[in-house]
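If you are new to this repository, start here. Below is one unmodified record pulled from the training split, so you can see the exact layout before writing a loader.
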Amino acid sequence: MAFLNKFLGQFKAKKSGQPDNPLVALFKPYQNDSDSPPCLAKNGRDLILECPDKEEVFYAFVEDAIFSSLYATVYEQMLLSLASNPDLALQLIDNFGKHQEEREQLLWQQTHEHLQFIQSNGQCPGCSCCENHADVIDLIPAFNEFDMTFYQELYIGMQSIQFAMEQLLYEFIPDNPELINLIDSTNIFGLRKHFFELGARNCN
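And here is the target side for that same chain:
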């Protein structure tokens, strides 16, 4: 994307008043575009809401929110790997893309196991995700209350994060490998926080 070259030049030249999170700043020129992460998330939400069966809608939000959360963690790990291996970045991205189908199958299996745990009110007879069930235990009360608003906001927030990381990995970095220098755990956390809050604010 052409604007990134201009942005990088401005960022490097700026000595004071730099944005708190340069990864967030990368998305600013596109924040109102139809393919911005929150807009993509809202479009997905609107498609789900077209279903007349409220229970089916509810379960779609729950499942997809969990799946997006897992996928965002995978993207985070991948981005940190790029930061640790900048010379291999393009090769790693290419290899990562080639294994998308099998990765998504694994994530859907993990999603299903987490959902079973939630449906069973925190009980699990044993599965491959047992050691990570603690990550979703706080979702149980809202599930038991059939809290559509909670899960709709969670869905849009997590989808926004997933789309943002996907764009960073596949669109921004390959054309501008210098962006790898901006990646660290603090900036990624800030990126996640920004897009979750932005998605939740624009939920309606």
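Two things worth knowing about this chain: The two ends are 30 Å apart (CA to CA). The chain has a mean pLDDT of 87.
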